[in-house]
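Re-run requested by the PI after the first attempt was lost when the workstation crashed. Everything re-entered from the original request form. Ligand of interest: S-adenosyl-L-homocysteine.
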Amino acid sequence: MENETHKAWKLSREEILGWLRCDDEAELARLWEKADDVRSRCVGDEVHLRGLTEISNYCQRSCAYCGLRKQNDALERYRMTEAEVLECASFAVEYGYGSLVLQAGEDAAWDAKSVSSLVRAIKKNYSLAVTLSLGEQPREVLKVWREAGADRYLLRFETSNKSLFKRVHPPLRDDVVRDRVEQLKLMRMLGYEIGSGVMIGLPGQSWDDLVNDLLLFRELELDMIGVGPFIANPATPMGADDASRFALSDSEQVPATELMTYKVLALTRLLCPLANIPATTALATLNPTSGRELGLRRGANVIMPNVTPVNWRMRYEIYPGKACLTESARQCAACIVTRIKAIGRKPGTGEGASPAYLARL
Ligand code: SAH
């Protein structure tokens, strides 16, 4: 599979920084064009669809950016049952999605046993790849879930700056510090397709940090890479009145903008040509009209339509104003397919495994 066309661009640290700082429209048009060209040659015109199922909004963590944090008393908590998740799986199949993503806060009730049972039931009844996005977990648990049939795992490292990460994502206990990069390496050893990513414009994220994030995507040879803008949530310390204490000075802080997200998407495609890269919901939240389409034309090849029942979806409030909050799963499916066709692309068929993963087999 690997040949000249699939070689990652040898972008230097300085070149990456130059692109991130570039505001010249004609120059940026060249970047979009290059990213779209590499996307088309390396992963093709199919847009893979993943049914996102938000199986619980309980969380034991205290992340400064996320509305699911345990201190958020205003959030009504829910946990889907196995039967409800299986119904979502049947919708995903009906709408032609190749995989189901099970995402949640770190909810102790979705434990080794219950998730294994759920994964087994999905794999037995439906032809779907199963992706887990259930936060940091002990080795044994990741192993048991993989043995139950889970194919992929998404765990964003959020920022490659270790001290910033620790500040915004305090460890559960001082004696249990799980390094997300180590977690990803472990998942790879266990045979998962591994997905990661960062928030763009996270308060405290410097330009150098973002360059390091991009270089780390390449170093880890990620199979999937999700990047989206940081969106302040007033129910978190990073959305509170004194949130400015997290940010750097104006010249040092990366802005959490739509344009910056496209730049990161495009550079990610050049650095990791074979990876699956979604146009994320956070991007669609900043630009509901054409964010997804522009993402798909600037490097992305995946969309993750939500299949969570609407009553639960409203409560999975990581950040406010999330795109597509009130549309039913069926409406989302129809809308997404129309949008994909309108830009001359086609909905993917099959499970949509990462070409990066397949190239490594
Ligand atoms: N508990 C899981 C799933 C978290 S939600 C985990 O920690 O991996 C999935 C992603 O949403 C996170 O990885 C984070 O990058 C993103 N996210 C959280 N809060 C956000 C915010 N305020 N703005 C934008 N993205 C956010």
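Saved to the shared folder this time. The radius of gyration is 19 Å.
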